[in-house]
Amino acid sequence: MMPPGLRCFLAVAQAGSMREAALRLRLAQSAISRRIQQLEEELGVQLLERGARGVALTPAGEILLHHGREATQLTERLRADLDALRGVRRGHVVVRLVESFAASGLSAALASFRAAYPAVTLDIAVVGSEAILASLRDRTCHLGIAFNPSADPEVEVLASAAEPLAVMVAPNHALAGAEKLTLAELAGLPLVAPSYLGSSRALFDTACRAARAAIRPVLETNSPHVAAAFVADGKGVAVMVPRVLALHAALGRVKAIPLVDPLLNGGRIALLARRGRRLPAAAEAMSASLARVLEQQAG
Fold this sequence. Notes:
D-Maltodextrin-Binding Protein, domain 2, 5-stranded mixed β-sheet, 3 domains, alpha/beta, 11 helices, Arc Repressor Mutant, subunit A, 44% helix
């Protein structure tokens, strides 16, 4: 419903580059550039300043961005009203989520949703919590599932569940028989920690400082497969959300031991949406499926 040139312009303005916009829209950069040039010719103004480091909005581009966002909101409300009228028969839902929920939780939500709404298409990608908040603010996704998301006046929490961090060890590790562990007991051990790409790392570092535990990770990674291989081979232990290694735990390669730490036990995973945004009926249905999974886990 939105003119192709305006759609391309908004994607470039939000992404900050033709390349990133091309990836989001799944179009060639040349096609995006051509459509924006046509839009500039129609309006009689230059919208973008193109340089080696990307693009920047001209004053005219800033004005169009403002009105373009308003047009996007009107289009969304129109689609939501039409969807409500005919029921959820089709649609497209964009979801951004963290690795832990993708590893354990997403499959159950997808199964129930796809069984009820087989004609709805989905775009699901794993990114960090801050990127999820940015996508919600920019309206480039309908829903997000983030770990310990920072407070944001433009984003609201629809549902949440506890998501504590734990110690992951091999079944034959010396600590495997422990019922609980403290951070102090991990000092001096070869340890895997979440990388700084994820928000769980900030929580881990804060907890170590609060407990005055001298822990220096020998490996930092955002890959559950790398962490699982390190732990399963007996090279050391990992501190992370157990859900990330759910598959490896089910296979008996690793096991989780709870940590006695108020900060690490206070982690939460949350279903998010942009505050005040009226979601299309398909996105509302997907939100209900995701919320049910979180509620079951919370119970």
